[in-house]
Predict the structure.
Amino acid sequence: MNDTSAIDDQNRVVSLPLLPRRRFLAVTGGKGGVGKSSVAVNLAATFARRGSPTVLVDADLAMADCNLLLGLAPTRSLVDVLDGAPLEEALSSAHGIKLLPALNGSARLANPDERTRRRFVQISTELAQRFDTVIVDTPAGVDELTMTVTARASEVVLVATPDPIALADAYATLKILSTLHGVERAYLVPNNIRIAGQAEELASQLLSLVDAFLTIEIITLPFIPHDPNIPYASASGRPLVLAYPDSPASRAVARVARALDQDIAERAASRAKAPEAGTP
């Protein structure tokens, strides 16, 4: 199978849409435990598998876990770059993905000063210029660094589960991104869906709140179902889409990636045609 085809839910080969050349995604969620890091890692693996030079940035600076999900034990991290080491020396490689790791238990990263925050934003921007696909795995919460880095991304991908607290925290994240950072659009990925109708209910509840109080546009992407293979993939240090490519969640991640790219491509085409509308 080549990079322009995939297997659908009925085991049929289907064509994939042409992928935009560049992506700068921030995967966020507000609440911890919604599967944000898993979504970020598996989207990175999906795009890398299709031939896109991909870097994953672990922005959970002092509670990093992307390296564990990729089976890596990096010898260098973001701390070294902040201290002047070349960015390239801090990038680790696994499964076709480059990773800029953070550092567990670093008091410096847990409480970044203004210089550190500015430098981290600069590093993210530099990576976006060097790689076709940049995925930033943001930490839980709505602290200033998290929201700033998220808002700088071209696309914000919000992961939420049906848990009421996760829904409330997802709304709080959108509120801050919209009102304080001017973010106009975000993508919603309902995650860990166990029963029929849960994803639609989650999206409906969140959209009702957003429509009533915010101006941000929400695009709902395909949901990712509960999948018992996820903890096994995590323990093996391989992305789920590689360790269990036919599992329900792996298939769902492929649908998310296709839907995300299709929407980005359609919006780009619409913007390109916009000047023509005013041409005599």
Summary: Confidence is low (pLDDT under 50) at residues 1-9, 11-18. The chain has one domain: 29-264.
